[in-house]
Design goal:
Blueprint: H1 4-11, H2 15-36, H3 42-72, H4 80-96, H5 102-116, E1 121-128, E2 133-141, E3 151-152, H6 158-165, E4 169-171, H7 183-186, E5 192-199, E6 202-210, H8 221-249, H9 260-276, E7 283-290, H10 293-300, H11 302-319, E8 325-328, E9 333-339, H12 343-359, E10 362-363, E11 369-370, E12 374-380, H13 388-405
Antiparallel strand pairs: 1-2, 1-6, 2-3, 4-5, 5-6, 7-9, 7-12, 8-9, 10-11
């Protein structure tokens, strides 16, 4: 399959072809003029003219053939086999672009690139014009773990040079990246090519491809790498859009926490782990809501109510362990998954959360302080249930019992927080 650019080149005449043809024509005319002014017999002149005509036609034919051959031969880097593989990359967007996360998409794309332009390693950077940085996102190939996730200074690395120049870059010795990555890592590679990735006119990423030490890229390979970049950019764009849609479907808009759907995904995963290691891996679920939230919401307005939810979410999350997962269900209810936490550990976490709201009140825009109190309910795996619905049902029931038990109670605050 020939590209449109190849077809255009085949039909476009070159200046050299016109010059050679003109010289042949002038030579033929000059020879004809000289023969016609000689005194040889007419029949001899006719034979000479016929010979000139034959030589002229043959010379013109050979000239056109030679020039045509130079024009229509495809570039060395892109032949019909490679064009077919490039076209397969375009087709892949129809099948995978809207169904793979970016990490999986990168692995798929990298394996396809390796079929077209064999490499030792392939790295994807994402760019940020606001902060003027490029972030190393994924690596594939030889020692990918050595490419640590890091933001690269804008004036360093081949990827940065590609980002600044908005054009493909070729480095025959990897000198640019030796200033960024360990030297022994760069010694594993021969040369490198960086190509920009565009969303319409906006540059959103850079792909860097490193060759094997004994099979270095040539500068002409940049043309092929650029063609690859044009094909894979739409794949990444579709994948990022898919990832955002999945994230939005699992995220609460007010608190930016996972929603109840996300809670179930996390809990099912943790239940599977606890089933495998019953004695060594306890698991507890917390159900939490804000006491008298409806009254606060109606007296101050929904905007303040949303701010209270955001404040409560941040405060609760700060009291949890790093492995714990906090989610928002509906209304003022929060659900937490506490891996490896039995009843005693869960009680300590509940007390820590409750104390934090005593010393950290919510402050309204007018400066008014609201001391929030919470209702808690918990359920521990195996003892209170073996499925996600059972655990959540028990935790919510105990939360409602806690709410009922505190109705009519007089709340006490330290003297320094009164007034």
């Amino acid at each position: 399959m020939n590209s449109p650019n190849s077809a255009a080149a085949a039909t476009k005449p070159l200046p050299g072809s016109f010059l050679i043809t003109s010289l042949i024509a002038l030579t033929a005319l000059g020879a004809t003029f000289l023969i016609s002014n000689t005194g040889i017999a007419f029949q001899a002149k006719m034979l000479v003219f016929a010979g000139i005509a034959v030589v002229y036609c043959a010379a013109t034919f050979l000239s056109v053939r030679i020039q045509s051959g130079r024009q229509t031969s495809p570039p060395e880097a892109i032949n019909e086999t490679v064009e077919g593989k490039l076209f397969a990359l375009e087709e892949a967007s129809e099948f995978f672009g809207a169904s793979l996360k970016s990490a999986d998409m990168f692995r798929l794309i990298a394996s396809r690139i390796n079929e077209i332009l064999p490499f030792a390693a392939c790295v994807l950077y994402l760019t940020d014009d606001e902060t003027r940085t490029i972030e190393l996102k994924y690596a594939f190939g030889d020692n990918p773990q050595r490419f640590a996730n890091a933001e690269i200074e804008i004036n360093l690395s081949l990827a940065a040079k590609c980002y600044l120049g908005r054009a493909p870059q070729f480095d025959a010795t990897n000198n640019c990246d030796r200033r960024v990555f360990p030297r022994d890592l760069m010694d594993r590679f021969g040369s490198a090519i960086a190509v920009p990735l565009y969303r319409q006119t906006q540059l959103f990423g850079v792909v860097v491809i490193y060759s094997k030490p004994d099979d270095k890229f040539e500068r002409s390979s940049t043309t092929l790498a650029e063609a690859i970049g044009e094909r894979i950019a739409p794949l990444f764009i579709s994948s990022f859009a898919f990832e955002r849609s999945v994230s939005n479907a699992l995220t609460d808009a007010i608190t930016n926490l996972p929603n109840e759907r996300g809670f179930y995904l996390v809990l099912e995963n943790q239940i599977a782990e606890s089933q495998r290691f019953r004695d060594e891996r306890p698991l507890t679920v917390l159900a939490i809501d804000i006491r008298n939230f409806d009254e606060l919401n109606s007296s101050h307005g929904h905007a303040v109510g949303d701010s209270v939810l955001e404040f409560a979410a941040q405060n609760i999350k700060r009291q949890l362990r790093q492995m714990d997962v906090l989610t928002r269900s509906a209304g003022d209810e929060f659900l937490a998954v506490l891996p490896t936490a039995g009843e005693s550990t869960a009680d300590e976490i509940k007390q820590r959360i409750a104390r934090s709201f005593v010393v950290a009140p919510f402050v309204t825009a007018s400066g008014e302080k609201e001391f929030l109190e919470l209702n808690f309910g918990s359920a521990t795996f195996w003892r209170d249930g073996e499925t996600a619905p059972d655990l959540l049902r028990t935790a919510r029931l105990r939360k409602d019992e806690d709410k009922s038990a505190t109705r009519g109670k007089v709340l006490w605050f330290p003297k320094e927080y009164v007034n």
